[in-house]
Design a protein that fits this description.
- It contains seven helices and five strands; from the N terminus they run αββααβαβαβαα.
- With 149 residues, it is an alpha/beta fold.
- Helix 6 (126-138) packs across helix 7 (140-146).
- The radius of gyration is 14 Å and the shape is globular.
- The N and C termini lie far apart (33 Å).
- 40% of the residues are buried.
Length: 149
């Protein structure tokens, strides 16, 4: 995965994360791209806004993409390392690669994904890290609820 392209795509996910924060939700965003670079879907964590514990950013982007014949060759871009739930989604549908903006604040299932053939690119983007650190510091109870603690 070309890092320059990954950072451009991460910008889409960050737009979603910022929108989620402005709505009073958890600032995590994601986008799903086709092998040819077409944006298939984008979304943000909407657990708070929708009262739906399954509406993680990756889930929202996946749902927005709609039904695809195959997910092979696609790239899930997310501002935060995917939790086990979202890592399972990646494996279940054969998403080929995951680009991660921040794996410092939360170290999700991306190593497990790599062990099972998913290409992983961790960018440790300063904005992603700063947004999540500030959110966790300001909202520890909501954060612990989101990660299942």
């Amino acid at each position: 995965m070309d890092e320059r392209q990954a950072r451009v795509w991460l910008g889409t996910a960050m737009e979603e994360a910022r929108a989620g924060r402005e709505e009073g939700g958890i600032p995590i965003g994601a986008a799903l791209y086709a092998a040819d670079g077409t944006l298939l879907g984008r979304g943000r964590n909407r657990r708070v806004q929708d009262g739906d514990p399954s509406m993680h950013a990756e889930t929202a982007a996946f749902r927005a993409a709609g039904r695809q014949r195959t997910y092979r060759g696609t790239t899930m871009v997310t501002t935060l390392s995917p939790c086990w739930y979202c890592s399972g989604l990646v494996r279940q549908f054969g998403i080929s690669r995951v680009v991660i903006g921040d794996a410092t604040t939360f170290h999700g299932g991306h190593e497990w994904l790599a062990e099972h053939g998913v290409e992983i690119l961790v960018l440790e983007d300063p904005e992603c890290v700063a947004v999540m650190r500030a959110f966790v510091e300001d909202n520890p109870e909501l954060w612990n609820e989101d990660i299942g603690d």
